[in-house]
Write a structure and sequence with these properties.
The complex is a heterodimer of chains A (106) and B (121). With 106 residues, chain A is an all-beta fold. Chain A contains no helices and ten strands. Chain B contains no helices and eleven strands. Classes of the chains: A mainly beta (106), B mainly beta (121).
Chain lengths: 106, 121
């Protein structure tokens, strides 16, 4: 089980966002990904392997963590970053997602 | 660049079945798992299962075992999700998704546009 916190994050453009994903079991190989989903759109892969940015993802997005605790950081929020973010473990099937964190404009 | 194009929206009666397709273009079809992920209205993402076309054997989320069948046709580079005994809580957007060579594993770089399946009497 992946538990994301907080459920909602209210911030202003230009601020830093820190999103947490906690796993109930160790994700030992770092097989953790982060996705961004805007309304009406398919999810977009941001981070894989806990800390590697996917192709074309701006460097304001960074991932960190290991074991059971992982973090997605957005260094300076742009208007297009206000969306829902999901973590996913893909170490052992079934692949599971967290329940999501909504980043909204304050 | 890999593109995944899904079939159109469906409206189904409870107890019936639905089959959604996912046509892949660009890249290599056979070697990468095509996965199916669904999202109920206002809810999160739920992995249903996946298949590596080269091997032809699908893996399923236990919750869906017996009701879901995932297949792939290498000749048309198309994957299919069939869900039977539909219930109202199967109403969702269904996505196909697959990894890239770069990210590896089972993170999903490429996604279809989604197919809305509505189950209603």
């Amino acid at each position: 089980v992946l538990t994301q916190s907080p459920g909602t994050l209210s911030l202003s453009p230009g601020e830093r966002a820190t999103l947490s994903c906690r796993a109930s079991q160790i994700v030992s190989s770092g097989y953790l990904a982060w996705y961004q989903q805007s309304p009406g759109q398919a999810p977009r892969l941001l981070i894989y392997g806990a800390s590697s940015r996917a192709t074309g993802i701006p460097d304001r997005f960074s991932g960190s963590g290991s074991g059971t605790d992982f973090t997605l950081t957005i260094s300076r929020l742009e208007p297009e970053d206000f969306a829902v973010y999901y973590c996913q473990q893909y170490e052992s099937p079934p692949w599971t997602f967290g329940q999501g964190t909504k980043v909204e404009i304050k | 660049q890999v593109q995944l194009v899904q079939s159109g929206a469906e409206v189904k009666k409870p107890g019936s079945s639905v089959k959604v397709s996912c046509k892949a273009s660009g890249g290599t079809f056979s070697n990468y798992a095509i996965n199916w992920v669904r999202q109920a209205p206002g809810q999160g993402l739920e992995w249903m299962g996946g298949i590596i076309p080269e091997f032809g054997t699908a893996n399923y989320q236990q919750k869906f075992h017996g009701r879901v069948t995932i297949t792939a046709d290498e000749s048309t580079t198309t994957a299919y999700l069939e869900l039977s005994s539909l219930r109202s809580d199967d109403t969702a957007v269904y996505y196909c998704a697959r990894p890239s060579a770069g990210s590896g594993g089972n993170s999903f770089d490429f996604w279809g546009q989604g197919t809305l399946v509505t189950v209603s009497s």
